[in-house]
Amino acid sequence: MVENWNEQQPLKGTSDERDFMPVAKLFNPAGAGTWLITECNEDGLAFGLVDFGYPELGYFDLNEIAEVRLMGGLVRIEQDLHFQADKPLSKYAEDARIHGCIKA
Fold first, then answer.
1. What pLDDT tens digit does each residue of the chain (104 aa) get?
2. Which residue of 69, 82, 96, 97 shows the fewest CB atoms closer than 10 Å?
3. So which domain of life are we looking at (predicted)?
């Protein structure tokens, strides 16, 4: 993810901006919350598709996500270890707008 971040930064806002395939999927096992991540800097600032009932592209802090505790501290945000992207992030975002949620 850091490699993608470093490649993308000089291209941001240009026609050469990359449309990476998601590298990781995080989810809330106790309710709403899904993240498809394409890139991340060394400080934990990440970019991807986020869904809390309304999917949108944007930046988020992986450090904050790692601190989330649910159900009295027993549940944490988890990584879907079986997730394998099969399309670029823009296609996941397009599909999420059509379906109203991330289908991954």
1. 999 999 999 999 999 999 999 999 999 998 889 999 999 999 999 999 999 999 999 999 999 999 988 767 767 899 999 999 999 999 999 999 999 999 88
2. 82
3. Bacteria
Inside any domain, residue 104 = no
CA 68/CA 39 separation, integer angstroms: 20
Burial (CB count within 10 angstroms: exposed 0-12, middle 13-18, buried 19+), residue 38:
buried
Number of domains within the chain? 1
Residues 8 and 42: their CA atoms lie apart, in Å, by 14
